[in-house]
Amino acid sequence: MNTLDRELSTRLARLRAQGLNRELRRIDSAQSPRIVLGGRVFLNFSSNDYLGLANDGALKQAAVAALHRYGAGAGASRLICGSLAPYHELEEAIAQFKGTEAALTFSTGYVTGIGALSALLGKNDIVILDRLVHASLIDGARLSGAKLRVFRHNDLNDLEAILKWAALVIHPPNPKEQAPPPRALIVTESVFSMDGDTAPLRAIADLKDRYGAWLMVDEAHATGLYGPNRRGLAEEMGVSDRIDVQMGTLGKALGASGGFISGSRILIDYLINQARSFIFSTAPVPSAAAAATAAIRFVQSEAGERRRNLLWERIDELSSSRWADGGRRPSAIFPIIVGDETKAVQAADALRESGIFVPAIRYPTVARGASRLRLTLTAAHTRLDIAHALSVLESVLDLGSQMDRHHLALKSGI
Ligand SMILES: *Cc1c(COP(=O)(O)O)cnc(C)c1O
User: Fold this and answer.
1) What average pLDDT does this structure show over 309-337?
2) Assessment of whether the complete model's pTM goes beyond 0.90
3) CATH assignment, 57-299
4) Three-state SS annotation for the chain
5) 376 C-alpha vs ligand 1 centroid, how far in Å?
6) 26-50+302-412 has CATH 3.90.1150.10 classification
């Protein structure tokens, strides 16, 4: 063993000892409510394919047509070798869907957050993040070099305290200041990816107006699912036009892959010029863009509305069980908090033995000691699927007292 491998195997052993080791599980089927692992069929409650579009005929057809017309690869960055028509069709479809002037797509949601934040902010600026935002937003905020402040999850008082401090920093009592005025950007999600709860977007928009900050909202888990036009939670809450930078992803409810920013034409022109993860990266394959365009058209259709309603029926069924955290605005994400990392893995193993595929989410995806099972529902699940999952949860896991959701254990007694 060379010294690098020796060092890495020590580090891996440390992760294993902490219950934090991760491994890939090979699936020999498409993403759908039923997946095949090692020759066995599992009921799948792990994907973000909320509308069941990842394996949908309309998306596959659009991808195949684009593959035949535009080929398998993109050739280079869109600024270098020309920008293929499918990206423009997709961006026009996104802008129209979101009701914004323009949109820009990126290869993934992850590089969307990185590219946008590092383009918009510099070291004189302040970026204010909800504690539970996605890694892409944290990484983008760090990369921007802006002063980083974190407010307690959904805590408006904490956010306001930071905004007050930021106002002092932004308007220093020095009239001779020549540098461009620093800015503060608030960054949050609409539906939080690992907790499934939602942000008080209206109150946050009120605060950003009061303190002259900007607001960026990542709708990765809400795009296609909320609002009269299924634009997202901001639409449902009536605050879309108060959000300066709207972000979404194409790989969750939209069933394809990629990420996007939608907003003013000026914002998009600026990102084309300054977002390094857009500029210095080969464009995604054209078939992915075509699949995403088909998904956006589907979501806007009557069939899309029916599909969304099916998802909400399934959500209601699970929401009324004791596994749900009642009293909050529902989403398709149901965390069952376990706490201990090793116990979370054992609980996921036990569910898998009973034919249910659910991921154990651990540090660093969530805080240490906040490990959980994360069940996600899709419109492609049936009523029977939900009923079956509930009965397996009952027989395998013991939720403990309703008052303390951290007392989850296996019935076999770990
Ligand atoms: C999944 C996710 C992303 C990243 O999107 P990908 O397309 O998977 O790279 C960004 N933000 C949030 C909130 C997410 O949940």
Assistant:
1) 91
2) yes
3) 3.40.640.10
4) CCHHHHHHHHHHHHHHHCCCCCCCCCCCCCCCCEEEECCEEEEECCCCCCCCCCCCHHHHHHHHHHHHHHCCCCCCCHHHHCCCHHHHHHHHHHHHHHCCCEEEEECCHHHHHHHHHHHHCCCCCEEEEECCCCHHHHHHHHHHCCEEEEECCCCHHHHHHHHHHHHHHHCCCCCCCCCCCCCEEEEEECECCCCCCECCHHHHHHHHHHHCCEEEEECCCCCCCCCCCCCCHHHHCCCHHHCCEEEEECCCCCCCCCEEEEECHHHHHHHHHHCHHHHCCCCCCHHHHHHHHHHHHHHHCHHHHHHHHHHHHHHHHHHCCCCCCCCCCCCCEEEEEEECHHHHHHHHHHHHHCCEECCEECCCCCCCCCEEEEEECCCCCCHHHHHHHHHHHHHHEECCCCCCCCCCEECCCC
5) 15
6) yes
